[in-house]
Amino acid sequence: MRTAPTSSQAPASTPLAAEEEAGPSGGVLAEGVDCVAVDWYSGGWTERGQITAALRASDAQPWTLVRQHLLAFWEQQLRGRPVVLIGASLGGAVAIDFASTHPEAVEKLVLIDAGGESYKAPPPDTVAAFAKPVLAVKGLFQAVQARLPDDASRIVSLHRAEPGCYEASLAYLESGSMARRVGRERIQQVAQPTLVVWGTEDDILPLSDAYAFERDLQHCVGVREVPGSGHSPHLDQPEAVLAHLRPFVAQR
């Protein structure tokens, strides 16, 4: 969502771009703040065919093309205005990669239960070697998830029926995953002010990862715990997350 400027002035504030599982928080972040949700390659609703074809036709890695896609979006849709970039879950690793590679595009960074310090996955070589059977198991799980009665589970699964989703997921897993690109060394290259938000009951990525980010980031403004939330506090308790985001985004 984006707050429209008047015809005589540019938008008053920095736009906010959100990576993966942005949830409902963007649109009500703050009056006067542009909020834009961006789906990255292997998740959400981004058209995958051209990127997958480019991967298969070259030695490029998925994360390289994901960065190029995000950069093109920033240049063409956001007109090159620096953003406050939010990355949730695996999208946090994507956001770290983009912020460290294109500091001119990112004014501030928010990491919500983000991958990077650790991943809920085996080592990259194992992920690559077992990509097809792993994807088959995930497919069975996701088929069950899509039939659960609660809206949240079904919404999370909707995009997986889109054309090219399986091929994109396979290409990503065969690369070994973002763990090949984003780890402690890459995290230490992030120079932007960064806020870390974490659900205290996250059973996918431990709360200790939040404090590892605080240790490794050049300019971490702090860790904000969301008591009782799991891996997606922005979905579990959006108002609690927004209460942490608003002053950070507004601060100049």
Helix content: 40-55%
Annotation field: number of helices: 11
Described by strand count, sense and barrel closure, the largest sheet is: 6 strands, parallel
CATH class designation of the domain at 16-120 and 181-250 = Alpha Beta
Pfam families: Abhydrolase_6
Protein name: AB hydrolase-1 domain-containing protein
Region (Disordered): 1-24
Biased composition (Polar residues): 1-12
What would you say about this model in short?
Residues 1-12 have a biased composition (Polar residues). The chain is of the alpha/beta class and 252 residues long.
Would you give an account of this structure?
With 252 residues, the chain is of the alpha/beta class. The protein has eleven helices and six strands. A six-stranded parallel beta sheet has the order 2-1-3-4-5-6, sandwiched between helices. Helix 3 (90-101) links the parallel strand 3 (83-88) and strand 4. Residues 29-243 form the AB hydrolase-1 domain. It holds the Pfam family Abhydrolase_6. It comes from Emiliania huxleyi (strain CCMP1516).
